[in-house]
Amino acid sequence: xxxxxxxxxxxxxxxxxxxxxxxxxxxxxxxxxxxxxxxxxxxxxxxxxxxxxxxxxxxxxxxxxxxxxxxxxxxxxxxxxxxxxxxxxxxxxxxxxxxxxxxxxxxxxxxxxxxxxxxxxxxxxxxxxxxxxxxxxxxxxxxxxxxxxxxxxxxxxxxxxxxxxxxxxxxxxxxxxxxxxxxxxxxxxxxxxxxxxxxxxxxxxxxxxxxxxxxxxxxxxxxxxxxxxxxxxxxxxxxxxxxxxxxxxxxxxxxxxxxxxxxxxxxxxxxxxxxxxxxxxxxxxxxxxxxxxxxxxxxxxxxxxxxxxxxxxxxxxxxxxxxxxxxxxxxxxxxxxxxxxxxxxxxxxxxxxxxxxxxxxxxxxxxxxxxxxxxxxxxxxxxxxxxxxxxxxxxxxxxxxxxxxxxxxxxxxxxxxxxxxxxxxxxxxxxxxxxxxxxxxxxxxxxxxxxxxxxxxxxxxxxxxxxxxxxxxxxxxxxxxxxxxxxxxxxxxxxxxxxxxxxxxxxxx
Length: 509
Prior knowledge:
- The chain is α/β, with parallel strands linked by helices.
- It has helices at about 5-15, 30-45, 65-75, 90-100, 105-115, 175-190, 210-220, 230-240, 250-260, 285-295, 370-375, 415-425, 460-465, 495-509; strands at about 20-25, 25-30, 55-60, 80, 100-105, 125, 135, 155-160, 170-175, 200, 225, 245-250, 275, 295-305, 310-315, 320-325, 330-335, 350-355, 380, 380-390, 395-400, 405-410, 410-415, 430-440, 445-450, 480.
- About 30% of the residues lie in helices and about 25% in strands.
- The strands form six sheets. Strands 12, 13, 14, 15, 16, 17, 18, 19, 20 and 21 form a ten-stranded mixed β-sheet that branches. The chain has a five-stranded parallel β-sheet with strand order 4-3-5-6-7, with helices on both faces. It has a four-stranded mixed β-sheet with strand order 2-1-11-10, with helices on both faces.
- Helix 2 (about 30-45) packs across helix 3 (about 65-75), helix 6 packs across helix 7 (about 210-220) and helix 9 crosses helix 10.
- It is globular and about 70 Å long.
- Belongs to the ATP-dependent AMP-binding enzyme family.
């Protein structure tokens, strides 16, 4: 199997003049970009970084970050991107945990990086100076001449992503060239991509979705259209300017795009295929997205950093809420929560924990120096996801939430996703999140946090749930109207923030 560097060389040899990357007015063909990438790869080696070393990258989605990603693939360096919103404490943790030999940053990450004493003991690479006169300027790594580097092998580590750390300190997820290439190839196949596709590069390159978009385009001579950070108008401008043909976003970003006042169908007319991942898309949003884009392909991906894709549905709009069936490189099962064995498979319709086969080509082999995390999640050759779900009679998977999100009210188990789906179809509901609030009598009460687009009250929403046939114990007992739904940097709903904020307000009432 090719490593990623050789995969890129194959594309350069096949279509050297095809546009590989754009970033506003900046653009490079594959042949031109290879020169930049190789020059940077040699520059990293000159700074003392070698095969198997970690380079922490704290940048927005600019062409320089994408160039560093590919330079690391050629040099055999492990690119280790982290959130550009990280604090100095976050950066310090990752520098120490990865034993990084270098850190690259732009203005967005400069303050946090430069506040870390540990950063001054290793090579620092800055885009545009960023107030660090002693750092190596990224621009100085360009324009060099020399041998074509291709140091990595398929089993070498290509990339290490850090999980969000919502249940503790972040865990490093090392992924090999082989696993990354397999995931990129599956992404191409499952999204029916063709030569010369153009994808929107707005999902962060510290997130598996952003990396998948970057790599998949390089396999098919496609273009990666950088948008440094998501802004609805800037994103629409990029789609329009570069004639983007496919989108791969979290549901929140679709919502923000189609709700933006300057959104018009003609501005996104070039988009033919759309995909989403990272969270479920409610039935209401799905209908609005389909009407806005009229795509030929509407794909739902369900996966994670550890294993790129678990399931996929290429007709996401046919059965809202479904995540489809096992992807090209995967097998899945649903087992009881706290199952002792992956062989305790539940029958169709019964909810439990979703697990995935670690023998799949896209799978990682374990967390970075975290044996306790391996012991919890990796058992008998299967990855226990901590996601809840069930398979219907057709064999389609429905993901109902995290094990920790399950609401237990009056002894009954309630999954938030089903209720969110029903409420999202009310015409005055813009966004909704359902969670369980503590209650002395019921243990937890089903509570809907609702952002509305027009006048509506609790009675109207209750009647809507009744008319939709929602079982009585699943209907919200409480509605809380909010101005905004808190989300992470990649658009995931922060359910825990809603609960914590509400708990704080109840404590002070």
